[in-house]
Write a structure and sequence with these properties.
five-stranded antiparallel beta sheet; five-stranded mixed beta sheet; Beta-Lactamase; 18% strand; alpha+beta; Heat Shock Protein 90
Length: 551
């Protein structure tokens, strides 16, 4: 009747518990997903958008800096090209003035005086628009300039273009290559004259390009370079530097432009010291590192907030489970006590043997209630920091014997086989006997709860080096490795597998952990699913402590 009554009381709760646990599990999963989605939307997405915006802004800013730099270089290079053209234009203007104001018999001598002042011009020639009539004037030193009529006739297209510009009132200068006129240099600057003589309609300067660059343009190039830039003129074919304001290699130039008047030559520029690309790259890397660091900090903060919030929610849920489990734990023994008390008070029990069984059950359920309430009160004191321990010299054997005197009958009533092995000459410990007994009882209660079929408990004491231990082994359902550390946390209960349907407050093992920590001891656990569990409570040896202290 006793066992039948228990089954009738507990049976309806079994299915309610399963449904409730499934609902709680689904609720937790859904809640966790909601938290993750909220954090992604509220924190991570803005962080990603901010980083993308900063990177794109950084790229556009660096592009703008590069564009401004390139335009500045273009302006410098343009000014040098314009200066070279202005010089050539001024020379052509002097020739035009000379042809207009000088008698034909004196043109050669006047031209020679013009050439003597300009070392980069080896000669001046005059021809008509067809290129057939050709006269060449060189310096008085008799320097030879070889210009062939056939070479000029090949430039008919260029001459026609110059004449069209001249008819519009614009005197343009065109550079052309017309042969090996001076030491392999065939550069000629063609322009239209204002001569009153038809045979002198077209004129040209035979130019020594290198001399022009080094003598005429050097000052302008050095002025344009200033203290910030390095400018250099190089041969485009050989990439050999003709002149530069500082030592620079062709590969170091960042912007280059062709020289208008000198086919085959270009001018390049770069910053002194670090190039703008290096500056931009360094700035980009520095800003990207800063953005990355801020993102890491932000993500770290989000992760910490998420973990904190998740733990708080888990703690709230665990506290809710605790209240539910404690209510169940209280309701079951109270129901049994009430049922058996009513049965006894109504005098429905006929035999003394049944009465004794009922009284024993009431006593056991009362002790069970007492232990549960003591656990809750002790937990409350521990949480408030008010729990005090009265340590005194004792031995684990004495504590185990005292516990088993009152607990053996309960274990036997639950159908357990007990094996107790107490070590001889066990060193003493400094302990609160009641607290250690409470820890041991909580371990035994766990063994009872989670041993459904193979009901066996082995209790053993012993010592190892500087520790004294009591070990409790059962043949219950066991614990997965992933839960070994967590089961000692407050309110934590394994909610998977066979343990899902076993009720408990979630305080027992956390109280054991607190008691062991207060005694300077530790807990070891060996357990595998389906193979039972082995809890070992280790305490510092009092004898070793005394000998160390005396030494």
């Amino acid at each position: 009747m006793l066992r039948t009554s228990r089954r009738l009381i507990r049976h309806p709760d079994f299915y309610d518990t399963m449904k409730k646990d499934k609902y709680i599990k689904a609720y937790r999963i859904g809640k966790g997903r909601k938290i993750a989605i909220i954090f992604v939307l509220v924190a991570l997405l803005p962080a990603l958008f901010y980083s993308a915006y900063e990177v794109s802004s950084l790229s556009s800013t660096e592009g703008l800096i590069q564009s401004i730099y390139s335009k500045q270089l273009d302006v410098i290079l343009f000014s040098i090209n314009q200066y070279a053209l202005d010089v050539a234009q001024s020379w052509s203007g002097e020739i035009n003035t000379l042809l207009i104001s000088t008698q034909s018999s004196h043109i050669n001598s006047a031209t020679q005086k013009f050439l003597d002042k300009r070392g980069s011009i080896h000669g001046v020639f005059f021809t008509d628009s067809t290129g057939h009539s050709l006269s060449i004037v060189t310096r008085q030193t008799g320097e030879k300039v070889d210009i062939k009529v056939s070479s000029l006739q090949n430039q008919s297209t260029t001459i026609e273009k110059l004449l069209r510009y001249a008819s519009s009132g614009y005197r343009k200068i065109e550079p052309v290559i017309i042969g090996d006129s001076i030491a392999g240099q065939g550069l000629v600057l063609l322009f239209v004259t204002s001569s009153r003589f038809p045979e002198q309609k077209i004129a040209g300067f035979v130019i020594d390009a290198r001399s022009f660059l080094t003598e005429v343009l050097r000052a302008k190039i050095e002025q344009a370079a200033g203290e910030e830039f390095v400018l250099g003129v190089f041969d485009r074919q050989t990439r050999h530097m003709v002149l530069s304001t500082s030592h620079v290699e062709f590969t170091e130039l960042r912007e280059t432009k062709d020289l208008w008047l000198f086919p085959g030559y270009s001018i390049g520029i770069r910053l002194k010291g670090t190039s703008v690309e290096d500056i931009v790259r360094a700035r980009s890397e520095r800003n990207l590192i800063l953005i990355g660091f801020l993102d890491i900090l932000l993500l770290g903060a989000v992760w910490l907030v998420y973990r904190t919030l998740k733990k708080e929610m888990e703690l709230v849920q665990l506290k809710g489970d605790f209240v539910s489990n404690v209510s169940h734990e209280l309701r079951t023994p109270l129901s049994l006590i009430r049922m058996f008390t009513e049965t006894l008070s109504m005098k429905r029990v006929q035999t003394e043997e049944q009465k004794h069984e009922y009284y024993e059950t009431i006593l056991q359920e009362t002790e069970r209630l007492t232990r549960l309430i003591n656990n809750i009160l002790n937990f409350s004191r521990m949480e408030a920091g008010k729990k005090q321990y009265h340590l005194e010299p004792t031995t684990l054997n004495e504590i185990v014997i005292d516990v088993m005197k009152t607990y053996t009958s309960h274990l036997e009533h639950e159908g357990f086989k007990i094996s107790m092995q107490l070590a001889e000459n066990l060193p003493g410990i400094q302990a609160d006997r009641e607290a250690v007994a409470e820890a041991l009882i909580n371990i035994l209660d766990n063994a009872i709860k989670y041993s459904a079929t193979d009901k066996f408990i082995r209790i053993e004491t012993g010592h190892a080096i500087d520790k004294v231990y009591v070990e409790v082994e059962d043949h219950g359902i066991g614990i997965e490795k992933q839960h070994h550390k967590k089961i000692f946390e407050t309110f934590y209960r394994v909610s998977t597998g066979l343990t899902n349907n076993i009720k408990g407050s979630g305080l027992g093992l956390s109280l054991v952990s607190h008691i062991l920590h207060a005694h300077g001891g530790l807990i070891e656990l060996e357990s595998e699913p389906g193979k039972g569990s082995k809890f070992r409570l280790l305490f510092p040896s009092l004898n070793l402590s005394d000998s160390t202290h005396k030494g």
